[in-house]
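Co-fold these.
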Amino acid sequence: MLRLDPRDERISTTRHFRAWEGGGEYNLARGLRRCFGMDTAVVTALADNPVGRLVEDLMLQGGVGQKYVRWAQYDGVGRTVRNGLNFTERGFGLRAALGCSDRGYTAISQLKPGQIDWEEIFRKDGARWLHTGGIYCALSETAPLVAQAAMTAAKNAGVVVSYDLNYRASLWKSIGGKAKAQETNRLLAPLVDVMLGSEEDFTSALGFEVAGLDEQHSKLDTSSFQAMIKKVVQEFPTLAVIATTLRNARTATVNDWGAVCYYGGSSTRRGCAKIWRFTIALVLCLWIDLRIFGREGSAVGRRPRRSPWSTRNDHSG
Amino acid sequence: MLRLDPRDERISTTRHFRAWEGGGEYNLARGLRRCFGMDTAVVTALADNPVGRLVEDLMLQGGVGQKYVRWAQYDGVGRTVRNGLNFTERGFGLRAALGCSDRGYTAISQLKPGQIDWEEIFRKDGARWLHTGGIYCALSETAPLVAQAAMTAAKNAGVVVSYDLNYRASLWKSIGGKAKAQETNRLLAPLVDVMLGSEEDFTSALGFEVAGLDEQHSKLDTSSFQAMIKKVVQEFPTLAVIATTLRNARTATVNDWGAVCYYGGSSTRRGCAKIWRFTIALVLCLWIDLRIFGREGSAVGRRPRRSPWSTRNDHSG
Amino acid sequence: MLRLDPRDERISTTRHFRAWEGGGEYNLARGLRRCFGMDTAVVTALADNPVGRLVEDLMLQGGVGQKYVRWAQYDGVGRTVRNGLNFTERGFGLRAALGCSDRGYTAISQLKPGQIDWEEIFRKDGARWLHTGGIYCALSETAPLVAQAAMTAAKNAGVVVSYDLNYRASLWKSIGGKAKAQETNRLLAPLVDVMLGSEEDFTSALGFEVAGLDEQHSKLDTSSFQAMIKKVVQEFPTLAVIATTLRNARTATVNDWGAVCYYGGSSTRRGCAKIWRFTIALVLCLWIDLRIFGREGSAVGRRPRRSPWSTRNDHSG
Amino acid sequence: MLRLDPRDERISTTRHFRAWEGGGEYNLARGLRRCFGMDTAVVTALADNPVGRLVEDLMLQGGVGQKYVRWAQYDGVGRTVRNGLNFTERGFGLRAALGCSDRGYTAISQLKPGQIDWEEIFRKDGARWLHTGGIYCALSETAPLVAQAAMTAAKNAGVVVSYDLNYRASLWKSIGGKAKAQETNRLLAPLVDVMLGSEEDFTSALGFEVAGLDEQHSKLDTSSFQAMIKKVVQEFPTLAVIATTLRNARTATVNDWGAVCYYGGSSTRRGCAKIWRFTIALVLCLWIDLRIFGREGSAVGRRPRRSPWSTRNDHSG
Amino acid sequence: MLRLDPRDERISTTRHFRAWEGGGEYNLARGLRRCFGMDTAVVTALADNPVGRLVEDLMLQGGVGQKYVRWAQYDGVGRTVRNGLNFTERGFGLRAALGCSDRGYTAISQLKPGQIDWEEIFRKDGARWLHTGGIYCALSETAPLVAQAAMTAAKNAGVVVSYDLNYRASLWKSIGGKAKAQETNRLLAPLVDVMLGSEEDFTSALGFEVAGLDEQHSKLDTSSFQAMIKKVVQEFPTLAVIATTLRNARTATVNDWGAVCYYGGSSTRRGCAKIWRFTIALVLCLWIDLRIFGREGSAVGRRPRRSPWSTRNDHSG
Amino acid sequence: MLRLDPRDERISTTRHFRAWEGGGEYNLARGLRRCFGMDTAVVTALADNPVGRLVEDLMLQGGVGQKYVRWAQYDGVGRTVRNGLNFTERGFGLRAALGCSDRGYTAISQLKPGQIDWEEIFRKDGARWLHTGGIYCALSETAPLVAQAAMTAAKNAGVVVSYDLNYRASLWKSIGGKAKAQETNRLLAPLVDVMLGSEEDFTSALGFEVAGLDEQHSKLDTSSFQAMIKKVVQEFPTLAVIATTLRNARTATVNDWGAVCYYGGSSTRRGCAKIWRFTIALVLCLWIDLRIFGREGSAVGRRPRRSPWSTRNDHSG
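Predicted complex below.
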């Protein structure tokens, strides 16, 4: 997906855009590659025109492998297939950030089960982790089927599966709304090892209530979130890790950010006794430049190389 | 339509785009307004999102009236309706200019006959000239019907109709190709007073052959073009003016440009004797910055105010 | 007026300027047009050279009507008439914002009573609101006379008149100073319905003292301001609305902003009983990018369309 | 003088300006300093505001001494004194370059004889060359008087005086036109050693006709120019060197440039026999970026250090 | 190597640089990867600091494999090891392009034989082509030894070796000059299959004279060059292909470019009869943006995928 | 030294650098010149290539005299002599600022005692203040000797000597580390009148402990610093002024800054009784754009002209 950013101006009055690549799964792959030095690749589809080739150029810079990218023939107009665009403007002070998606009829939304050889990826090439999420699954009728096929193949190959609920009302609106989102996510949840999501995601996209949240989520209260997590694990006992970000935007530039990570569950796959373990991190008054990408941990540049997660053994209780 | 331009870089490797508004009919309206001080307006439809509002902001700067712009509700994704995009890169030396259209599912392509009140425009508001052309008519099934309704209403109200053939193979490819283009344009031609087009347009989009053209159209030979025009007028005797641009790109920066304008025909509407009049202008080795917009005469900035065309009386022989 | 802005650099060491249009009355007209969708126009004069045409281009983008703009012939040098310029640099942290006006001999300062047909504007074209203020009136000897003519014509046509005191010592210095400013503003005040001004404006430009203000106006204390307003209304009983902004600059980027709006006065024109009504809004620690334009409510971009003020009936008590 | 340049855009539609310093005399001083390593200084006056300080910053970068710059107090508005501005846009292809001067009421135009201590400059500080010209002399009534005082002081101190005729109709229009220009230049010519000017300058600003020039000066014919020079020297026998540039703009980017330099005259000051010596240089199809500054030889950057002119002895026949 | 480019300004007066990666061998690898879709990798060494990591980022974008890059520990100062820099300014019209190398003490110049496992590259990883040249060999005492080891290993593994003579006087000046360059290149020539070089390179760097060259090489005369090639092949009979570029800079922007490619030699390795085959291509008045990279065929962006060279079999006569 | 700054991007992923000049001593000289209007000059050496000439251009703009700059011949490669570079990226929020020095083999590091005529500078040209410091002294073996010669000459000529300890571990690492730094600084301290340094500098570079400092120096506690100063003066009784900056970075943008200045010492040169005088200034939550240059007080632009320090007489108790 090509991201067009008017820098310190606004989309509707700018004359200049900065081009970036983006997308939840991609951001995570890029972060692991550039900040932590891991080999990652993206499985996606792009229309073969100069815009798609610009995304290729950006992903090359990101160091993310493109071996599994499918290039769809372009019709010269954008009727049959397109590349997704996202116009994103940053907030300032009282003015919130603003996004405008233009991703109908994208190549990736037209991907169908059977078009990707997951056995090659997980068995032959030896991928160790699969990450996808709720934005992809909302792109089309076929997208959840592709995700299901990928996650099942991963499960069978012993590959860890992480899933970011990432609920976007606009994407689900015309294909069944919140009810369809919950149905889709609940279908996929048993295939997930590591479930990610904001407070709102667990409610809207998975159907769990977090007690005592104020309307604006302005307090980073982790206790009611921990209670909710216990309910999630009771219903989906195969989840080994559940992690969330908590955000309170004091202004568009100064946020409180927090995270709660539950781990040590009783994954039936690993058959451990249940020990409730939570790691909680809070940062108050964090200055941010652009508040998208929170959960994907996208980082511009290079940080010291270290393992982003505990090793796999650590996931069991 | 939003035009995104990587300036002196290439689309597929740039990180920055300059935003412009564009479109054949709009360019002509903007040129008449800003170079010649005439009141003009655009009849179009846009999706109501920040990208559409950027086009509004650009058209405000262009001084073109937006009273007849229809704003379509946006779905947040771009599935039901979008705004057209055009990525355009300029050539240099041996490297030709390059365009990449992304205009499937645009609001304007979904416009239907009956949605615009042409009587208001031509009778009540007193518009004196209607300009449209072959790119618009290729956007959808309904587009030629909208054009036909507009041109008929104009004809009835005594409003001059100009039409730019502007043949683009990519647009017609999936909806019937060259045959469909010719069928559409031939249907509309009897409603036209002023027909514009390149040499290639008259051949591909209207079905007339220009004798003796070399493959690259590298000679600006006007005599065979004049012969072709006579054939066009014989078949479409209501055409009062036929104009073309002739281009020979020596390099991407240095072109020969020419124009042949036939006027003084025997429009049955005006019943004059036929006198063949041609005005020919040639400029060799013209330096150009960006070779789109040739025929629309789009001009950035302000030139001395004078009438761009002869007055209407002059059209008769 | 052309505003030249060195972005994040300083005027005296920059190599690049961003061009904007500006001016108190214009900013208000632009804000009403682009944020609230209202039709507005500016009555001004510009020298007809490329700089003036750039201001035209910027005002076109702003959507503000230019029907009443008078274009003065340029002499090629700037001896007889010029366009106003304003160099504006933004502050950062401890460094305050800085402006440098270059607006001697401007076309607008040379405007004389009788050159504008106010009857056409208020009666024929049906304008409903006239806004001007103390900066314009300081531009020349004739400026207050033009304002007086406009305000009288508005009053006669039942058009609301608002006036922003906007005291600038530098403008008045050579033409009579604070005394002349007060004389001018007091002459015009009886013609005003809606009077705007900062705390300092009411003191310096109109001669009212606000009790208990500390030197830096660092507390946003609204009570003494309310007391002052009562004195203003006693002296100018036709004022229906009095509004002020209160600012305390903690740093150049973080300000406290507030506003006090008195309405419900006993305008003799409307003959209501006097009911003191105040609306007070305070925002502490507001992050701002550039602190000019506070009172004009200039907004870059588009906010939800709603009426910026209560309807006219609401003004009476 | 501050030069504002919209780069590859046009003044009337740009949003960005690049700032440069400029002015005929200054350009020559800067070129001698940065290309040829000579110590130079500028005698001028500036208004002391951020715009003037920007010019100071630019001249510091240019390496031109500012010891003789007079700083005039600014009134905050620009009524009493201003800094000169020049908006300059470059041409392209058929489109010619365009300038817009805004230099009324500048500090330098208000300079009066007696305000500069020329004895200090020529005797104490030992300046060896004085350069001024026809643009400065057109700025005000007092400007030619200042020039006359400077040139007389230079003459007395044995300092070489060069003068660039540089006729600009717009500057002279309101103060006596071509007749006044010729009167002024003819008054000063006897004080000049080195006279510079284009073909047009010698005609319009000094009253000599060049025979056989076509209207557009499109042929770089040097013979008739040599004939004219002989007439000039007959009338002003103290001129030791007469030099001109000849320009033929094929396009805005490709010019023919030439130069004719006469030297070896019979300056009465030096009392030599008259030997007519001409040096002629022609460059056809020169590519230029911006065609101002031709004669001042302004160069951005650093060329090998060598003497720009023959040594003084060479000037005599 | 990091290339810093002041765009349309000059190095010595700019305030902005555009960063690129560069280097003869790298440019060729990047061109093959991005224009022709081939897998390529670069064997080099970089100092591990943010500048080196910027080169990594640029090479990632270039798509060139970095598996063989050695990262040298940085000392925080640049005393023990550095990254190479090259400041490059483009010419315009009469002004020639200008480069300024800053590449002493670079990591790559300190590479020693034995630090690279060529067997892994040629045998295990299956590289099919090795390209290096005369700039690398001039970097240090050890550089030719590294090149010799690489070329020998390639020869032994049946890998094609190409070598660009690329003579730069400044690099050789302090380490033995032209004599040392010729000695080095003559030592390596028997290991080369494909020898590249300009006319001047074959003379200065290899010791062959091209008869009848004018001083400025302003005629692209290919016949004397063909004669010289025959002499080269007589002396170095293992050369299978010899190619050169011929350049004549009419201005900095308009060049004549040509190429002569000899192939079909009597490589002893392949034992063919000698058949002299030459392919000659000339382009007159080519417009170029920046004239570095001629021979490496570096291309910004993507051209149609096709083989840049004939297949290997074709090299034999 | 040329400073390359990726603006709001990061060094390792940027494509654009802004060029500045820099260096501790230079920054102080520039600040005195442009903010306080004093004549200053820099004594340094530069390699004579376009990069060095860019530093010259930047220093010209800075207004700092270059009479004492030595230009070293460049070898075209950077083996014998180079110009120092410093890549500097600004922090944001949690991300700290980052610098990358590339200053091995610079011309200034190769300066030797005897190459500068200090008598000319202090006696003939009448310089009144010499400033140098610990970064320069760490550049090479000869640097402290040059500093010693300069400071001795200054002392003899009655010129005030200030010295900024400025300890940088990376510079000293390979030439003796902290022990060598302390030895060098202690050798020079008796020649210093005004000693500057951060808390850490007095400890690491001079060997004094500040009691009770927390690890991150997060409290701006001035009392223990005053106690340390007393110890410094006891050991180096000729120090007349000791000043420090105290910094606590709350975020990269919001810092607490403070300063403690001791003056009134018992300089043996002046023989006054010892009176302990301290001036303390604290600014909490200061917003900064780029935190380098704290102590040098470098200011971009022009502040009101006033004396930066008390006059010399004030230094004695």
